[in-house]
Design a protein that fits this description.
With 219 residues, the protein is α+β, with helices and mostly antiparallel strands. Helices cover 16% and strands 40% of the residues. The chain starts with 7 loop residues before the first strand and ends in a 10-residue tail after the last strand.
């Protein structure tokens, strides 16, 4: 029995997107194109199971690449998950926090009116049970896309930039653009410690080809 699915795809659209370049810390500046890790996040929002892991193959760019500049109020501090759990359990007294005193206005260079087709497949993991099989999860994914179902609303880089998704059948042709995109974040290799993975990205006739997981080196 195969542990790899057949090719699957979904169309993803949104009015704003920001796939932040990690080398720019202070201001948020987006890559020109959705990153593979962001595409994986969209697929997991639609269909996540412990028994499968998503692998991105291609990202088709259907709309012109247009940047827009916005300013947003953000907070500098972040509460740790351990503290939040302690407060919920009552083992620690919550600290008083005033967001108004911790705000900072930051510039964001985001993408406007994005439209992509994400092409991917999934593999069964070691957590797959005896009742799990590829056909079962393929049908679950296709059904959820058709019905617009998701575990949480998918987003385009930042949680406030929500995404719409639909079946990719009959989508427009990708933009007629070929260009080098430089080093792009591929994904995170979760371990001890977590390691970011990068690859040399480029558009060919509006299509970003994503290398296989094993072909990407850690930074």
């Amino acid at each position: 029995m195969s542990s790899r699915s057949s090719p699957l795809s979904v169309r993803v659209r949104g009015s704003l997107a920001c796939f932040t370049r990690p080398e720019l810390k202070t201001e948020r500046v987006s890559y020109e194109v959705m990153t593979p890790s962001a595409a994986r996040g969209v697929l997991e929002a639609i269909c996540w199971k412990p028994a499968i892991v998503w692998r991105i193959e291609r990202i088709k760019v259907l709309a012109p690449i247009v940047f827009t500049s916005i300013r947003r109020n953000e907070v500098n501090a972040r509460i740790s998950s351990d503290s939040a759990i302690s407060w919920m359990r009552g083992t620690e007294r919550p600290e008083v926090y005033f967001a108004d005193e911790d705000r900072a206005q930051r510039h964001t260079l985001a993408l406007r009116d994005v439209d992509y087709v994400v092409e991917a497949y999934f593999e069964l993991t070691s957590r797959a049970g005896t009742a799990d099989n590829v056909n079962k999860f393929e049908e679950i994914f296709r059904r959820r896309v058709e019905k617009g179902q998701c575990f949480h609303r998918p987003y385009l880089g930042c949680r406030e930039f929500t995404a719409d998704f639909a079946n990719s059948d009959g989508h427009p042709v990708p933009i007629p653009e070929t260009r080098l995109l430089g080093r792009m974040l591929f994904d995170l290799d979760y371990g001890e410690p977590n390691r970011p993975l990068f690859f040399d990205a480029g558009l060919v006739d509006g299509v970003l080809a994503v290398p296989p997981w094993k072909g990407v080196a850690a930074a």
